[in-house]
Specification:
By secondary structure, the protein is α+β, with helices and mostly antiparallel strands. The longest helix has 19 residues. Helices cover about 30% and strands about 35% of the residues.
């Protein structure tokens, strides 16, 4: 599911009532890292998760150059 979406979602995995969205990125040697954003569940409905993931992907692209790939 995460690979198909392009981002992962963690719902209450580390703390009840908290949702996290994570986006990984690769370099020429493989997985280079990931960036995640977490918020209380009430502020992270499914539509907002997609919006956050899109913003994170854009910022990763700016930071590592457009050559960075998602895992």
């Amino acid at each position: 599911a995460a690979r198909g979406r392009g981002y992962s979602v963690s719902e209450g995995l580390f703390m009840e009532g908290v949702v996290g969205v994570g986006v990984g990125f690769r370099d020429e040697e493989g997985v280079a890292g990931a960036v995640s954003v977490a918020a209380i569940a009430a502020r992270m409905p499914p539509a907002r998760r997609e919006e956050i993931a899109s913003m994170v992907r854009r910022e990763i692209g700016l930071a590592v150059g457009e050559g960075g790939e998602r895992p």
